[in-house]
Amino acid sequence: MTKILDKLDSQILEIITNNARIPFKDIADVCNVSRAAIHQRVQRLFEEGVLIGSGYTVDPKTLGFQVCTYVGVKLEKASKYKEVMPELAKIPEVVECHFTTGPYTLLIKLYAHDMQHLMTLLNGKIQEIPWVSETETLMSLEESLNRRIPI
Question: Do domains 7-47 and 60-140 have the same CATH topology?
């Protein structure tokens, strides 16, 4: 569902997606409105589902996760993805999972400490999940671009 944003909403989103820690007072100054107006707008953007989540981004390498991979997962029956998802959710190293079209039923992103850890995740966990018939692992050599959707 597409949300209609006015100029002030767009301006607020532009500011806070570039710096989530900026005080509402500073946003209000830039937007030339009251701090209360900013607070109300941000609250409404959360309530309408435009803004989701909050928090900080941690660099996985600082926590010892040196390997980033994307794993294409084929299921014996695509309709079983609802049964497979809870099992994948039990693996903390899996940070994203998408139900997709194309050659894979699921595309997951995961982090591992090293190649041995990756092998344990693939062979000992993911490939052991019922209905998983095949996996293909794509190694990320470097994250070259990571940005938010344009406002």
Answer: no
